[in-house]
Amino acid sequence: MQAKIIDGKAVAEKLRVQLKLKAEEFEKKNGRKSGLAVVLVGADPASQVYVKNKIAGCEQLGMNSFAHFLDADTKQEALDELIDTLNADKNVDGILVQLPLPKQLDERRSLSRVLTCKDVDGFHAENAGSLMLGEDCLAACTPSGCIELIKSTGIDMTGKHAVVLGRSNIVGKPVALLLLQQNCTVTICHSKTHDLAQIAKTADILVAAIGKKEFVTGDMVKPGVIVIDVGINRHEGKLYGDVNFDEVSKVAGHITPVPGGVGPMTIVMLLSNTLKAAELNAKNK
User: Fold this and answer.
1) For strand 233-235 and strand 238-240, is the pairing parallel, antiparallel, or unpaired?
2) Is the pLDDT of residue 180 over 80?
3) How does residue 162 score in pLDDT terms, banded at 50, 70 and 90?
4) Which sequence positions are flagged as catalytic?
5) Of the candidates 188, 192, 178, which has an alpha carbon nearest to the alpha carbon of residue 208?
């Protein structure tokens, strides 16, 4: 058995076409383009690439992008002031503070300062709380992308056993909540879980977000499982997922590659959140 590849680039492109139409409709209705502000502190190479891709994503959809580049030694007060300015700017619908921040800056304080209605990353405590309550909100982008990839297989998630490897606030916890909203039965595993491999093998849907290169091997999955690999591990100049693709793809029914799986979806879901925020902000003028 050879797994079907879930092509994240193809799924993202389909969504991008739909979002471009939404962006055009928003502009016609409101007389302005929706806008995303991205704040980058310092010159981390990976973060610079991410920011560049997010700006390019906005341009492709005909949305405005506002990039703010701050020095690595920026003080917390200066970052707070910029966030306050962006919160007050009616042309800015979404605000993304690129992580990680330099050590002198407080990530939680900075993320919490972004207005909930502009928190397109979905990291604000209020949005996270709304997700937990099952309310409509701006949900974290990578987990939302995972759900769209699973939907693209055409398999109904209702009643399926979903196992999430990882309990981070960025991926593990929110993706578990989103899977619950799809009526899955969800198990979260982490570094302290006993018999993790045996639990993983019971999964109909396996989301690997544990941050360890090729952690999931072929003997840890059951035939036909849907495997979503969120991992991005750099080793000797190459990218590896949390899943041993060669082994697991011979057992699974569907699997995402690394790269080309979850990655392309994250930016598309960010743009989707920005449009959603724009529509909400326009209603609440």
Assistant:
1) antiparallel
2) yes
3) very high
4) 54, 98, 121
5) 188
Q: Which of 10-14, 52-56, 82-86 has the lowest mean pLDDT?
A: 52-56
Q: Is the pLDDT of residue 269 over 90?
A: yes
Which residues is 227 bridged to in the sheet? 206, 255
Residue 191: count of CB within 10 angstroms of its CB = 11
Q: Where does 31-114 sit in CATH, by number? A: 3.40.50.10860
Pairing of strands 233-235, 94-97: unpaired
Residues carrying CATH 3.40.50.720, the chain:
141-263
User: What does the alpha-carbon distance between residue 160 and residue 207 come to, in Å, rounded to a whole number?
Assistant: 13
First-to-last C-alpha distance (Å) of the chain:
55
Asked whether 177 and 162 are in contact (CB, 8 A), the reply is: no
Amino acid at 170: I
The pLDDT of residue 22 is 97
Cα distance between residue 77 and residue 74, in whole Å: 8
- Residues 144, 163: Cα–Cα separation, whole Å: 16
- Report the top-level CATH class of 141-263: alpha beta
- For 62-71, 201-210, 228-237, 257-266, which range has the lowest pLDDT when averaged over its residues? 228-237
- Under DSSP, the state recorded for 154 is T
Query: pTM of the prediction?
Result: 0.95
Q: Given this model, what pLDDT does residue 236 score?
A: 86
Residue limits of CATH 3.40.50.10860 in the chain: 31-114
Contact 207, 230 (CB under 8 A): yes
